[in-house]
Amino acid sequence: MADINAIAKSFVDFYYSTFDRNRAELAPLYKEFSMMSFEGQQFRGADIVEKLQSLPFQRVQHQVVTVDAQPSNPQAGPLLVTVTGRLLVDDEQNPQHFSQTFQLVPEGTSYFVFNDIFRLNYGF
Amino acid sequence: MADINAIAKSFVDFYYSTFDRNRAELAPLYKEFSMMSFEGQQFRGADIVEKLQSLPFQRVQHQVVTVDAQPSNPQAGPLLVTVTGRLLVDDEQNPQHFSQTFQLVPEGTSYFVFNDIFRLNYGF
């Protein structure tokens, strides 16, 4: 599964570097029927990036610890990508830990995000 | 999405209570084309439950902290279910934190596991 892992890694690098630089630029990744669960709240379509832009921090830095990928359909095409990592916001000294799951769906030579589920991991 | 959340919760309750009681009984949940990534290692079909049974602990207790669910296909049917939680093995006093992602595919009146990605969350 070298190919999928390479695609997953390349998506994850792109996603978090864009997130950390300018969240608004994530908009093309989501379609109007895309779904995001963010800390248990549900968002769809354009509301997804609006929510990401409204998050109450000025600076954020994601550090990816693990990336896993599997085909999510026996006919191949879509990919399930899971990430665990840490993030640091503004002047915080202690990173928060997160898990995020994406389903990526191919479109032309690229992928869009159909599913996105994000959780901070508390209680550590 | 009340329905999917209820299905996800009921699956998660069943999965971890069965895991903690007798891992061998998880076998019917996985088909020969099911996939598991366990701490970065890949397994398929019958190898999945064999791997779970070979894990080097006698007793394990999972405590689920969050469960999220989304339809993973626009035509409905399959579900993406993500879990964060803690687990305690044997006589350990300190729980380990984990994230797990499943894709559940309907079959008759039930679901089987097509994708399963498990990670311990280290470095806390």
From TrEMBL, chains A, B:
InterPro entries listed in its UniProt record: NTF2, NTF2-like_dom_sf, NTF2_dom, Nuclear_transport_factor_2_euk
Keywords linked to the UniProt accession: Cytoplasm, Nucleus, Protein transport, Transport
Pfam families referenced in this protein's UniProt entry, alphabetically: NTF2 (PF02136)
Transmembrane region(s): none
Signal peptide positions on this chain: none
Gene3D superfamilies reported for this sequence: 3.10.450.50
Subcellular location: Cytoplasm; Nucleus
Domain NTF2: 7-120
PANTHER family recorded: NUCLEAR TRANSPORT FACTOR 2
Biological role: Has a role in nuclear-cytoplasmic transport of proteins and mRNAs.
Protein name (Swiss-Prot/TrEMBL): Nuclear transport factor 2
Organism, as annotated: Polyrhizophydium stewartii
Source lineage: Eukaryota, Fungi, Fungi incertae sedis, Chytridiomycota, Chytridiomycota incertae sedis
